[in-house]
Amino acid sequence: MLAVTMLFWAGNSIAGRALADEAAPIALAFWRWVLALVLVTPVAWPHLKRDRAELRRRWRMILALAVTGVGAFGALLYVGLQYTTALNSILMQAAIPPLVMLFAWLALRERTTRGQLAGVLLSLLGVLVVISRGRPWALLEVELNGGDALVFTGVVLYAVYSLLLRRRPDVHPLSLLWATFTAAAILLAPAYALEMASGRQMPPTPAVLLGLGYVAVFPSFLAYLFFNRGVELIGSARASQFLHLQPVFGAVLAVLLLGETFHLFHAAGVALIFSGIGLAAWAQRRVSRRPPGSP
Hints:
With 295 residues, this protein is mainly α. It is built from 13 helices and no strands. Helix 2 packs across helix 9, helix 4 packs parallel to helix 8 and helix 4 packs antiparallel against helix 12. It starts with a helix and ends in a 6-residue tail after the last helix.
């Protein structure tokens, strides 16, 4: 289930890029969550009756989760994919686990070793290589692709969302999904209205309807159900390791389905990102094996 979830999430960027010339990005984000909400409501309804008091009490946290990891991330991803490649966006999303570790160290003062921090910095260097297309001096000359900047902003927000999940309301996972999907759709509605007023439309062509159906059913409804069940079965630590499959699946799909080219700077970025992930994981294992009280 977890491996299939990563395949679905990788396909989200593929669909967003494939629809870039046809579908308005905010409309795609809005209707994605509206349709996902329709799908999740029947299975979440029995739990909502029990959890509604807690959801009402923790509405600020639900709003924060909806803004960072649901509404804003999806919208920024789809808008960014109007100007950059699916391959770039997928590789940048590989930086989410290291960013979560970095933010946990900065905001929560969680114990982090030098090896883990070095791994984070190595992964971020890989992201910068991808963003600058192998030309780091572009970072100083402000020659970056605007789409890459939007996607990376979404990646940072999703890392914040992952951190906020540690303080999520004590409710059933389906109740939380229903609440965040609802809040995301409400938050995106004004932006959707402005997009329509500007003349951007999402014509109901077969390609658009097929793409919308995909992003609503697979990376939204089914992926969250599968991921929640996977975490329940094997734990969050082991489940999080499957996130590293997403850029692998995504790179293959981008080349095969969209005809995108895998450049040398992509290879360098991948090598740095996964080296950083490996270094951080190795450092974490060393810490977990130390006897209590050891430095």
